[in-house]
Amino acid sequence: MTDDDGCPILHVDMDAFYASVAIRDRPELRHLPVIVGGGHRGVVLSATYAARIHGVHSAMPMTRARRLCPRAIVVAPDFERFSAVSSAIMEMFRSVTPTVEPLSMDEAFLDVSGSLRRFPSATAVGDYLRIRIFDEQQITCSVGIASTTGLAKIASRRAKPDGLVVVPRHGVTAFLHPLGVEELWGVGEVTAAQLHRLGLRTVGDLAHTPLSVVKRALGPSVGARLHAMAWGDDARMVTPRRGPDEPDRSIGADETFSRDTDDEAVVRRELLRLSTKVAARMRSAQVSGRTVTLKVRFHDFTTITRSRTLRDTTDSTQQVYATATQLFAALGLQRARIRLVGVRVEGLIDKALSTRQLMLGERAHGWEDADKAVDRAVTRFGGAAVRPATLIETSRP
DNA sequence: TCTGGGGTCCTAGGACCC
DNA sequence: TCTGGGGTCCTAGGACCC
């Protein structure tokens, strides 16, 4: 019947997720070209297949997308909505197997080795999930099934839209070798160009190139990994998402200005807004971090980062902001045209594990109390209720 | 009015330590 | 008085993912 011969890894990927959720909530948009995205300097987050026909795809600048498909209906993203749908789908996955690894809001790996008493095959699990997701969420998805994560990921892409593709163990090279190198997970624009320069266009070309040549071109680590993947050899296991014992590695926020700016006051105000946001998210996640990184992107898109590692971990708005502005001041910019600034805190640990030594004479509670008060007020009244005085817009005409 | 915002992981050099 | 060899931390940048 099905030819998955015991391949246990599923990759389930929603089709045009944001756009699908958007048209589900507005059925009159069905069959129309719909683009989720926005902002005059934004990019396409997701587009329906009716829009893709015109060449629109995700990550494309909105300006270009509108030019390609002037009749497209542009919908602003509603991340709370997406997140709610995503949670429901992930829960459904967990009802089938505990070994679920979400990769993003709209895709996950599942290892169903343990589910094969309840289901005759991995393919049966895939069919079941596709039907249930459509029944309960009215959106379609695609499923890839293979012996490894890398293959399952490629298979789901080949299954799009609304399909299921199995890569049987005995058919790995027949499936893989005709594909373009850029189909491999981990090969982006830069690596693809490097491989093309070597005359390698297909995965088969890559597989049949001596490992030493590939390593020399791509570096030992990337080279070895991709060469192995070209043979379907991929050690990456499905690892259920980090629990609360293992927090995210970093939390950050950045923002592209609606117009490039050379006004230091504008930049500082934005750094304050971003620091406020980042620190609040850290406190809400109960983590604390030591390294603050400032990101600055200039008008020509060149991007630099500057970081400072503090003596102790922090989750204080004030300390994140102070560090970010010091890093910015140290750049010594003279009227540079700035496109984007960002603030990120890395080296996160569980707040309960962070011990902080007070400086001599430092007050034990100061900014920390202020942050807590702000968090409480935001919980009660919403984010607009409490913010630093310099962020309150004045003199709206 | 080309090119978002959220992340992860890797590399590489220098400092520093034993 | 001519040059070790790890290991870890810090910093900066870059590739990649959705």
Task: Based on the model shown, name its key terms.
397 residues; alpha+beta; MutS, DNA mismatch repair protein, domain I; DNA polymerase, domain 1; Dna Ligase, domain 1; five-stranded mixed beta sheet; five-stranded antiparallel beta sheet; 14 helices; 38% helix; DNA-binding
Would you mind describing this structure in some detail?
- The chain has 397 residues and is an alpha+beta fold.
- Among the domains are: 17-79, MutS, DNA mismatch repair protein, domain I, CATH 3.40.1170; 177-230, 5' to 3' exonuclease, C-terminal subdomain (DNA polymerase, domain 1); 250-392, DNA polymerase, Y-family, little finger domain (Dna Ligase, domain 1, 2-Layer Sandwich).
- Helix content is 38%, strand content 21%.
- It contains 14 helices and 13 strands.
- The chain has helices at 17-25, 49-52, 62-68, 79-94, 122-137, 149-159, 172-176, 189-197, 203-207, 211-218, 220-229, 264-285, 317-330, 367-381; strands at residues 9-14, 34-37, 44-47, 73-75, 100-104, 107-111, 141-146, 164-166, 250-261, 287-298, 303-314, 338-346, 349-350.
- The strands form three sheets. Strands 5-6-1-7-8 form a five-stranded mixed sheet.
- A hairpin with a 6-residue loop joins strand 2 and strand 3.
- The longest helix has 22 residues, at 264-285.
- It is globular.
- The model has no long low-confidence stretch (mean pLDDT 91).
